[in-house]
């Protein structure tokens, strides 16, 4: 899941970003509305966690722009004002959900995940391929009866490949969906993570490499 966090209080913004990355999400963090619009113009995000009170372009205008753009990004609006009227106004601007500050981080994660499911194409709640099973909601994966101990990046990469079915997923797409804007496009991060993941999955091989294409489930090469 690719998430944009837009929050002008830097400590809170960085804390949210770090926490969501630990949950296996690819997260970019910006501190004002102008930077948010610039990011949205070049990257498609599943969810935007958007503070309503921003310097530069106001959060309300950023929300309107997202709703009008038709890219399918879902908006979770944050604000210190938590009255019913404020929530109604926020939803009226095009926000998909509304969370008043202060909030519990576990609730934030749950709401982001729920919105991410709504923004993505429908996939089965449990992803499977032969004896490989992955449950995105519980964050667990099994090979047969063996539970796999995966890092957040390994889990996210495997989830992306399983959700794609028979489709080949390019290295560029994996960098965009699993990593964030800090990832070097020339990095070997994808190749290295796939190698570690293959080692943990064991035999027989389940992740195939498609020459000059990328990776997919079930095509060992």
TrEMBL record:
Single Gene Ontology BP annotation: regulation of DNA-templated transcription
InterPro entries named in the record: CheY-like_superfamily (IPR011006), OmpR/PhoB-type_DNA-bd (IPR001867), Sig_transdc_resp-reg_receiver (IPR001789), WalR-like (IPR039420), WH-like_DNA-bd_sf (IPR036388)
Protein name, entry field: Response regulator
Organism ancestry: Bacteria, Bacillati, Actinomycetota, Actinomycetes, Streptosporangiales
Transmembrane segments: none
Molecular functions (GO terms): phosphorelay response regulator activity; transcription cis-regulatory region binding
Superkingdom as given in the UniProt entry: Bacteria
Keyword DNA-binding: yes
GO CC annotation, single: protein-DNA complex
Keyword terms of this UniProt record: DNA-binding
């Amino acid at each position: 899941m690719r998430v944009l966090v837009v929050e002008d209080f830097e400590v809170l913004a960085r804390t949210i970003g770090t926490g969501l990355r630990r949950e296996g999400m690819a997260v970019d963090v910006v501190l004002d509305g102008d930077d948010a619009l610039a990011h949205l113009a070049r990257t498609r995000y599943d969810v935007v966690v958007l503070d309503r009170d921003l310097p530069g372009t106001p959060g309300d205008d950023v929300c309107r722009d997202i709703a009008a753009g038709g890219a399918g990004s879902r908006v979770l609006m944050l604000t210190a004002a938590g009255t019913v009227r404020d929530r109604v106004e926020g939803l009226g601007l095009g926000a998909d959900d509304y969370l008043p500050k202060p909030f519990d981080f576990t609730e934030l994660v749950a709401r982001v995940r729920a919105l991410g499911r709504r923004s993505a194409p429908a996939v089965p709640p449990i992803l499977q391929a032969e004896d490989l099973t992955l449950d995105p909601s519980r964050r667990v994966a099994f090979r047969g009866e063996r539970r796999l101990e995966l890092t957040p990046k390994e889990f996210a990469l495997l989830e992306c490949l399983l959700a794609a079915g028979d489709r080949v997923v390019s290295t560029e797409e994996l960098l965009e969906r699993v990593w964030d804007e800090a990832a070097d496009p020339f990095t070997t991060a994808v190749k290295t993570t796939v190698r570690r993941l293959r080692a943990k999955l064991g035999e027989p091989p389940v992740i195939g490499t498609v020459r000059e294409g990328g990776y997919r489930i079930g095509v060992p090469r």
